[in-house]
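Database export, one record per block. Field names are fixed; values are copied verbatim from the stored entry.
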Amino acid sequence: MNDIIKKQEKNIKNDNLIKLSKPHLKNSLATKLGKITEKSSYLDMFLTAIFIIILCAVFFWLAPEGLGLKENRGFLDGLYFCFITFTTVGYGDLLPVGLGRIISIILAMNGLVITALLIGKFASERQQAILLLFHTSKPPQVRMANFLLKGLLDN
């Protein structure tokens, strides 16, 4: 049995046991939203969020009394309200009325979705990098081969 272990250790040292393969391409996600998310960059997502916030801020700024904010005091208040609503913080110091409530709901839902997509994209890329590092670096493969070999020899 010691001869087998010595032979395997010699093969590992000579690099005969483990051949590193090139990493394979990641399969694309199945849904349309997944494909769009995968293709879009962080900058694209950030600019989309900024565009939505500014578009809604213009709505609340230009909306007539009773359709936007309860007290319409200018563009900066609309921008502040939209940013707070987008991030779902919601301090409650500015209140939407009428159509503004529906716009606020849509804005908050967009904020939740874009934030979740950003976090998911970051986590997916991080996971892919870790897996790529693990499967293409030599020491983990050698440790795995030794672990498997020792398990086979113990049985």
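Remark 1: The mean pLDDT is 79.
Remark 2: Residues 99-136 form the longest helix (38 residues).
End of record.
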